[in-house]
Design brief:
The chain is mainly α. It has 18 helices and six strands. Strand 2 and strand 3 form a beta hairpin. The protein starts with a helix and ends in a 7-residue tail after the last helix.
């Protein structure tokens, strides 16, 4: 009996040790990079626009918008939110690559544009266009999507209704908020709720129109936004050794505890199948993230994305920032009280400078060495205090209102603490 007990413990230990190799799908034979929308060339924009027009004509955009609407209860406000939207975005991308093998979905790092989001290149008349026309049913008035007739859920123009004044979007979460979410979320579902209830929600409601509905995938901005949400999740997955395959919380699909064997609605695939980029169907990476060493050793193709000047010069092979203690970003954070740092930025308090634990607008600018004297005269702005997520959006997506409001309250507390202590954002 003692031997049997020992054997069971040994097998259990082996199972825990080998969960990485057991769960991962086969390695991708090639991996492409999802670029920051700011780094997309004119020729790439033309290619993307051509593919979008063909996908619209062939009904793919309407089909996926309908899928997103019908599955609403299962894919929002619970653990399925992140894996399902990772798969949906990849599905759209995979369809697009059948029209042009070079097609990819750029990510829009909305937090970087927190001061004036509408000024991003994606909203230019030559790309995806800006606000809708308030005198013409909020129909998008320029850009590649102008004049489109959307067929789901009924025939209508593509609509946008910016929540700011005079074709402006409201200010929203800055990179500091995302950094805090990554560093303070100690479980998967806590991270999911923090992200879904903050940046994810305010981008949808801020743009308005179709983006504020359950058929938001009608607007291609949906996919740029969710590529960014996916990128932030990937950063969190690779920020700590034990986060890659973490998946927990109460599941609506199984009505029990979420686990990696839960099935992605409509796709019939396991959640575990989409957890690791570079494996299975997830054959893409982001140009500003760093995979865990054990993944890089298993699949060297994952290192291909780390080819930008920033990633080569400021991040070590182990994924940590170079000379971080002398940087603008570190000195800014260190101007805060110890209690604020410990509460909102625990990795800084612990001396953990893994690049995935931080969200920054311009890495090179944030990480350049600076003296304390220079820091005192460097300009910047105070952080905007987050606005509440509209009840209509919360109820529509069947999210827990108390959970959403708790996240907003914590983010307001963070903004007030940083502003009160004189923190000036370098982003």
């Amino acid at each position: 009996m003692l031997f049997n007990a020992f054997l069971k413990l040994t097998l259990l230990a082996l199972a825990c040790t080998n969960v990485h190799s057991q769960v991962l799908q086969p390695k991708c034979s090639s991996i492409f990079t999802r670029k920051n929308v700011n780094n997309v060339s004119g020729n790439e924009w033309n290619m993307i626009k051509n593919v979008l027009n063909q996908m619209q004509k062939d009904g793919h955009i309407a089909r996926l918008a309908g899928l997103h609407d019908r599955l609403n209860y299962y894919i929002h406000g619970n653990p399925m939110f992140l894996p399902f939207h990772r798969r949906l975005t990849q599905d759209f991308e995979e369809i697009g690559r059948k029209y042009d093998p070079n097609f990819f979905i750029p990510f829009w790092n909305a937090a970087n544009d927190f001061r004036a989001p509408e000024k991003n290149v994606l909203f230019s008349p030559s790309n995806l266009g800006g606000n809708g026309n308030p005198m013409g049913g909020d129909c998008v008035k320029n850009g590649v999507l102008q004049g489109w007739t959307m067929s789901y859920p009924n025939l209508h123009c593509l609509r946008r209704k910016f929540m700011g004044a005079s074709d402006q979007l409201p200010t929203w979460y800055s990179p500091e908020f995302i950094t805090s979410i990554i560093q303070t979320s100690n479980s998967y579902d806590n991270f999911r709720n923090n992200l879904e209830s903050s940046l994810h929600a305010v981008v949808h409601t801020g743009i308005g129109g179709d983006m504020a509905t359950l058929w938001s995938p009608n607007d291609f901005i949906f996919y740029l936004h969710h590529a960014n949400i996916d990128r932030i999740w990937w950063k969190w997955q690779n920020a700590k050794q034990n986060s890659l395959m973490r998946y927990d919380g109460p599941s609506r699909a199984s009505r029990g505890a979420a686990n990696l064997n839960d099935i992605l609605p409509d796709y019939g695939e396991r959640v575990g199948d989409v957890m690791a980029l570079g494996y299975g169907k997830m054959c893409y990476m982001y140009e500003d993230t760093n995979a865990l060493n054990r993944l890089l050793e298993d699949n060297p193709l994952l290192a291909q994305n780390n080819t930008t000047p920033d990633s080569l010069s400021v991040v070590t092979r182990e994924g940590e920032f170079v000379n971080f203690r002398n940087s603008v970003a570190y000195r800014r954070f260190r101007s805060l009280s110890n209690s604020t740092i410990s509460k909102f930025f625990p990795a800084i308090a612990e001396g953990n400078f893994n690049a995935n634990l931080f969200e920054m607008n311009d890495q090179k600018a944030n990480l350049r060495a600076i003296s304390q004297d220079e820091l005192e005269v460097t300009g910047g702005t105070m952080l905007p205090v987050p606005s509440d997520v509209p009840d209509e959006f919360i109820e529509m997506h069947q999210m827990d209102k108390n959970e959403v409001n708790e996240v907003t309250a914590r983010m307001k507390e963070l903004a007030n603490a940083l502003n009160t202590e004189g923190y000036i954002s370098p982003n």
